[in-house]
Design brief:
The structure is a single chain. α5 crosses α6 (182-195). The protein is built from 8 helices and 11 strands. It has a 7-stranded mixed sheet, with helices on both faces. It has a 4-stranded antiparallel sheet with strand order 1-2-3-4, covered by helices on one side. Residues 1-6 have low confidence and may be disordered. It is globular. It is α/β, with parallel strands linked by helices. β1 (9-10) and β2 form a beta hairpin. Helix content is 33%, strand content 23%. It comes from Massilia violaceinigra. Keywords: Polyamine biosynthesis. This is Spermidine synthase.
């Protein structure tokens, strides 16, 4: 593959255009700006390329057999592809407002067509979480909602996070990427803490992404058990899960200190 970036554009009117660049074997997705909205290594398309996106899978430390995984915001479909392929017992649902994103993921990021397990919907994430038909039905909710300016989550109100919590099953978990202006961090964390039983976050990774894990019911945490689970995740999924446990441990020590 050439290291010379190339681009392709999907620009149905009324929404930010979706474009790609390629560099050193990695394909990146953009929404009409230089901000990276997702990535896929062409030699390993089934893997999750970006570290912060890998961290969105932290729920695996606490749940091993989800029946329904929901993604709010498709991005480059990395989480959707991974969940669909690695959890064959689960239904995978996506709410993505921008049709350009859906089209570019089908064309260039290996997003499979909808079937009995996969349901990618062109719709607003707020409408999804407010729909009573979705309440109490979701084991894992992964939230990564950004527009082309990437200044902070598009949806971040207490009402939004309450609706997210309402969607979760009794042991359900939400992971979300809190990225953008510094002021958005505290706002999002405080609004999550208003409605979730427990909210934890890991240290900032590249480009100021912070991954937050919110629990409908606070778990009991035994780090020896979590490290054991992390080893199994590394072996079966090739994800750096021990780093997640170390990050959680550091977060708890900071909170207690």
């Amino acid at each position: 593959m050439s290291d010379t970036p190339t681009s392709t554009r999907f620009d149905a009117p009324g929404y930010p255009p979706a474009t790609i660049t390629e560099f050193k074997g990695v394909r990146f997705m953009h929404l009409g700006t230089s901000w990276v909205q997702g990535a896929m290594r062409l030699a390993k398309p089934d893997n999750i390329e970006l570290e912060y996106v890998q961290m969105m899978m932290m729920w695996m430390l606490f749940l091993d057999n989800p029946k329904h995984i929901v993604q709010l915001g498709l991005g480059s479909a990395a989480l959707t592809r991974f969940s669909y392929q690695r959890f064959p017992q689960a239904r995978v649902t996506v709410a993505e407002l921008n049709p350009n994103v859906i089209d570019i993921c089908h064309a260039h990021f290996g997003l499979p067509p909808n079937d009995t397990r996969l349901d990618v919907r062109e719709m607003d994430a707020m409408d999804f979480v407010l729909d009573p038909a979705n309440h109490g039905k979701v084991d894992v909710l992964q939230v990564d909602l950004y527009d082309e300016d990437a200044r902070g989550p598009v949806l971040d109100s207490p009402e939004f996070y309450q609706a997210c919590m309402d969607c979760l099953s009794d042991e359900g978990i939400m992971t979300t990427n809190v990225f953008g202006d510094f002021a958005s961090y505290d706002k999002n964390l405080q609004n999550m803490e208003l409605v979730f039983d427990a909210v934890v976050w890991l240290p900032e990774v590249h480009d100021a992404n912070i991954i937050v894990v919110a629990f409908k019911r606070a778990p009991s945490i035994d780090f020896s058990v979590l490290y054991e689970r992390a080893g199994a995740i590394k072996k079966s999924m090739n994800l750096p899960a021990k780093n997640w446990v170390t990050g959680l441990k550091g977060w708890m020590q900071d909170q207690q200190g």
